[in-house]
Amino acid sequence: MKPTKAQYKEMTQKASPPSPKMKNCVWAFMVGGLLCAAAEVECQALVMAGMELQMARTLTSCSLILLAAVLTVAQVFDNIAKHAGAGTLVPITGFANAVVSPAIEFKSEGFILGVGAKMFTIAGPVIVYGTVASVVYGLIYWVTTLF
After folding, report:
1. Whole domain around residue 56: which residue ranges?
2. Does some domain include residue 5?
3. How many domains does the chain have?
4. Among positive and negative, which fits the CA dihedral 127, 128, 133, 135?
């Protein structure tokens, strides 16, 4: 016997515990904020050590990418993300994880058809739509500044 839509909805609500939304939001905000604050401390330390601000920002971004990639390879990033939720999706670390995870998963298929082909399965759409959006915004900006 097939359950009705109402019965199915009731069954799924019983099987799914309620999510502590406020707790998750606060925790994600704290972890994301801590990650960003640590990056800012690194950037300011590099500037205080005599590095130009632009170079310090670049190096900080690179270190966040490297850290996220290393933590993904060591299978630590997912454990952090499980508890921190969206806080780990600070764009640069989340993007690094999205690129490295499929590469690790498909490395057994070889470098070309595995790592190379699957590396951007998650991050590829982000790159495409980010590029398209930046072109559209650029055109809008260009057109509005003409007049």
Report:
1. 21-146
2. no
3. 1
4. positive
